[in-house]
Amino acid sequence: MNVFVGAAALTATSTPVHAGVDATLIAALEKLRELKPVYDEAQARFDETWSVYNSSRPAWPAALRWRPMDGLNIRPWKTKDGTILDPTDLGKMRDVPQLSWEYIGPEDAEAADMWDAGLARPKDGFLHLFKSKPDELKQRRLDEALKAADEHRAVCDALKIKTGFREAEDHLNDVYFNQIIPIQKVIIDADPSTPGATQAKAALLVEWFFEDRSDEQELNDYDKLVCDVVCGVAAA
Asked: Does the pTM of the predicted model rise above 0.70?
């Protein structure tokens, strides 16, 4: 969402037709205005079904709880059910064998400098100074977590279908990513040469990227200046 906030929704105004790029730009804005009710309806349906799905969604299983002593190279992720293994990190570990490493290099070398903490393994240039072996304890813990995650995902997927959330999500994604964004890009990429085309660009900002501001929010001087100019051009 754009950092500039506080613009009120504009009433669509008629604009003269210009040739070439400007005509395409202005026509794109009108098409976006036709799609706005479709998008709003899709968003409302998404919000409605998400609320139903989220209130019925099962808690994260205990097997996914993050424990410092697990030794898995997976970040903690905070949820309403407690801190669990980060699902994205966990998915990336699915086909990664769990190993333990032993330094076998010179005693006077700094083994810590050869270690990649992010990957939990030696850096590529120092692999020959370490030996590895399967870590059965970590592997069992990883397999346990993956199994729990797969089972939880299956239950959630079925619930998404039952509540209509999956259909609503797919529809919203289709409207936004396949219909709205390509038209927005036409307006964003075009170089306007007439006041009407410039107004269309400003209207895109106000109607799609600005958001209403509550009375408690305040704009800094720069944001207010830009917001006022853009809104003024769009409403001209």
From this structure: yes
